[in-house]
Amino acid sequence: MRLTRATEYAFRALRFLASRTEQRWYSIQEIGAAEDVPTQFLAKVMQHLTQAGIVQSACGKTGGYGLARPANEISMSEVLEAIEGQLAINECLIYPSDCKFLREGGCRAHGIFKELQSAMLAVLKKYSIADIAAHPGPRRRAGRNKKTT
Q1: Strand partners, 57
Q2: Assigned fold of 5-133
Q3: What is the DSSP letter of 26?
Q4: The model's pTM
């Protein structure tokens, strides 16, 4: 399993917003520049976060984005679900009636998948955006993604 780029960008944008001490709206351009995220892609990500009630937006010249709730009340699992949809290790955990193996008397892997998913969700619910903002990580240098030969 691998997180999408959209989820990575969501966490980076939320880390930015949670680490700001000044209470104001932050533009897509400010967030994108600070977190090295393309603004067009970030705009789509922020739409999902707004619809999920994780961030708020304000229109106008001084508009932008801010957290809808305190960072310690926004879990990592909530963010993942806002971007990726319902979290599941395997389709059979979302749609058990569609699983041929479960319908035919059981599947030995199903219990393992269920246990793995429970553990993953427990960890993601344990940590919040405040935990991410507390450890912003190293600053990126310009040109870091350029390949050298």
Answers
A1: 65
A2: Arc Repressor Mutant, subunit A (1.10.10)
A3: B
A4: 0.81
